[in-house]
Specification:
about 450 residues; alpha/beta; Rossmann fold; seven-stranded mixed β-sheet; five-stranded mixed β-sheet; 18 helices; globular; binds NADPH dihydro-nicotinamide-adenine-dinucleotide phosphate
C-alpha cells in the first residue's frame, strides 16, 4: 500500500546504509497493511513515520585502559525507540558487530515485543562494539565503568531501564550497576538482570530460554502435541540456548545439537547440558571441547551444517540472520514441524517464506523470546515494591505471560483473515497497543 511504501522509502533515505534496520522495518510495516487500511487516522497523524523514528539516539565515546596500560576507545550507543506504553526497556549488547543499524533494528523489534508482554514497558536497545573475547575481568570492569559514566545521565528507573543481551551477562550488569549507583547515589531498579544479592529476580537467568519453550509448548498443545520424545536442534550455546535446552529436556525432548560461533556439536544420544554449561558458563570456553569429552559426540567446524540434522523442532538462539533460505530448505527436508526464534531476527525473510510455505509452525522472536524482557519487568515490579517473589511464583507468571502472548498473536492473525500466520499476528498484536497509546498522547 502506498502510505507504507512512502514511509519505507523515507526511512531508507533518512537512515542510509542500515540494512538490518531496513529489513526489520520492512518486515513489520508491510505486514501491518491490513491494520493500516482499517485505520485512516494513522496516516493523518503520521503514526507510521513516528513509529519507525527513534525518539532519541545517544552515541558516545568509551575510553578505557587495558592491562598493558594502553588507552583504547570504543563507541557506545543507546537507542531510546518508543516510550508510548512505558519507560524504554531493552538490552545492552557488547559485540564487535554492534552499530546503529543493528541497534535500531533491535530497538524497533523490542517496541513490539515489550507491548506483547502486556506489561507497561516501552522499547529501546543499546550497547557497544567492545569485544569481550580475550579481555581480563579488570579490563571488562574498566570498560563497563567508562560506558556507564556516560550512559547514567540518560537512564533511570522511570526513564530507561537497560538489561543484558549478547556479551552482557551477570558480570557486566554488576559492574554497570555498581558504577551507576556510585554516580547517581541511588540504589534503584535502573538495570535488570541484576544479581540476586542486589535486587535481581529469580528466573531472570533462565527466562528467555524457558519462555521460548513455554510458548512452543502452548503452540504444540493447541495442535494436540507435546515435546515428549521430540528431536530438537538449537543454535547458539549462550544464555538463551542453554536454558531453552534445559527446559526442553525437562519436558522430555531430546536436544541433539548446539553451536557456538566456531562450529556445532551433534550428540545423537542427547546433549549433556551439564558439560555445555561447564564449558560455556563462567569460563566461556569453546563448544568443540564437548566432543573431546563426551564419547560418541561429533564436532563440525562451521555453523550451517547444523540445519541439515533431521529434527522435529529447530530453535535458532544465536544471532540475526543465522537461518537462511538454504538452511530452511534443509530443515524442511529433515522433517521439521516447529521453528521458534530464541534469538532476534535469526531467520531471514526468504527462510520464513520457505518454512511457512511448507506448513511449519513458525513462532517469531518478538513473541517467542519475550520471556526475558517480561521477567525483567517482573524484576522492576519487585524492585518497586522492595520485595522478592519465589522461583515458583516468577516461573508461574512467566508461563502465564507466554501462553497469553501465544493466544493474542493467534487471535490477531485470525482477526485479519490469516489464521496460523503467527509472525503477522505478533506484529499486529504488538502494534495495536503501541498505536493506540501514541494516538492518545497526541503529536509527540
Ligand atoms: P550469549 O552471548 O549468551 O550467547 C550467544 C551465543 O550465540 C554464543 O554461543 C555465541 O557463540 C553464538 N553466536 C553469536 N554470534 C554468532 C554468529 N555470528 N554465528 C554463530 N554463533 C554465534 O547471548 P544470548 O544467549 O543472551 O542471546 C542470543 C540471542 O538471543 C541474541 O539474538 C539476543 O538478542 C537474543 N535475546 C536474548 C535475551 C536474553 O535474555 N539473553 C532476551 C531476548 C533475546 P560464542 O560462544 O562463540 O560467542
Amino acid at each position: 500500500m502506498q502510505y507504507i511504501q512512502a514511509v519505507l522509502a523515507d526511512l531508507k533515505q533518512n537512515h542510509p546504509n542500515e540494512p538490518e534496520f531496513h529489513q526489520a522495518a520492512e518486515e513489520i510495516l508491510l505486514s501491518l497493511a491490513p491494520v493500516v487500511m482499517q485505520h485512516p487516522e494513522y496516516e493523518a497523524a503520521a503514526l507510521l513515520e513516528r513509529f519507525v523514528e527513534p525518539e532519541r539516539v545517544v552515541m558516545f565515546r568509551v575510553p578505557w585502559v587495558d592491562d598493558a596500560g594502553k588507552v583504547r576507545v570504543n563507541r557506545g550507543y543507546r537507542v531510546q525507540f518508543n516510550s508510548a506504553i512505558g519507560p524504554y526497556k531493552g538490552g545492552l549488547r557488547f559485540h564487535p558487530s554492534v552499530n546503529l543499524s543493528v541497534l535500531k533494528f533491535l530497538g524497533l523489534e523490542q517496541v513490539l515485543k515489550n507491548s506483547l508482554t502486556g506489561l507497561p514497558i516501552g522499547g529501546g536497545k543499546g550497547g557497544s562494539d567492545f569485544d569481550l573475547k580475550g579481555k581480563s575481568d579488570g579490563e571488562v570492569m574498566r570498560f563497563c565503568q567508562s560506558f556507564m559514566t556516560e550512559l547514567f545521565r540518560h537512564i533511570g528507573q522511570d526513564t530507561d531501564v537497560p538489561a543484558g543481551d549478547i556479551g552482557v551477562g551477570g558480570r557486566e550488569i554488576g559492574y554497570l550497576f555498581g558504577q551507576y549507583k556510585r554516580l547517581q547515589n541511588e540504589h534503584t531498579g535502573v538495570l535488570t538482570g541484576r544479581g540476586l544479592s542486589y535486587g535481581g529476580s529469580l528466573v531472570r537467568t533462565e527466562a528467555t530460554g524457558y519462555g521460548l519453550i513455554y510458548i512452543l509448548e502452548e503452540a504444540m498443545r493447541r495442535r494436540g502435541e507435546g515435546l515428549q520424545g521430540k528431536r530438537v536442534v538449537i543454535s547458539g550455546a549462550g544464555n538463551v540456548a542453554i536454558y531453552a535446552c534445559e527446559k526442553a529436556q525437562a519436558l522430555g525432548a531430546k536436544v541433539v545439537a548446539m553451536y557456538d560461533s566456531d562450529g556445532f556439536i551433534y550428540d545423537k544420544e542427547g546433549i549433556r547440558l551439564e558439560v555445555v554449561k561447564e564449558i560455556k558458563e563462567g569460563r566461556r570456553g569453546r563448544i568443540k571441547e564437548y566432543a573431546e569429552r563426551v564419547a560418541g559426540a561429533e564436532y563440525h567446524t562451521g555453523c550451517r551444517g547444523i540445519w541439515g540434522i533431521p529434527c522435529d523442532v529447530a530453535l535458532p538462539c544465536a544471532t540475526q540472520n543465522e537461518l537462511d533460505e538454504a538452511s530452511a530448505k534443509l530443515l524442511v527436508q529433515g522433517g521439521v514441524k516447529y521453528v521458534a526464534e530464541g534469538a532476534n531476527m535469526p531467520t531471514t525473510p526468504k527462510a520464513i517464506e520457505v518454512l511457512q510455505g511448507s506448513g511449519v509452525v513458525f513462532l517469531p522472536a518478538k513473541a517467542a523470546n519475550a520471556g526475558g524482557v517480561a521477567t525483567s519487568a517482573l524484576e522492576m515490579a519487585q524492585s518497586g515494591m522492595r520485595l522478592y517473589w519465589s522461583f515458583e511464583e516468577v516461573d508461574a507468571r512467566l508461563k502465564k505471560i507466554m501462553a497469553e502472548i501465544y493466544r493474542n498473536i493467534e487471535d490477531a492473525a485470525s482477526r485479519y483473515g490469516k489464521a496460523g500466520d503467527l509472525a503477522l499476528g505478533a506484529n499486529i498484536a504488538g502494534f495495536e497497543k503501541v498505536a493506540s497509546a501514541m494516538l492518545a498522547q497526541g503529536i509527540v
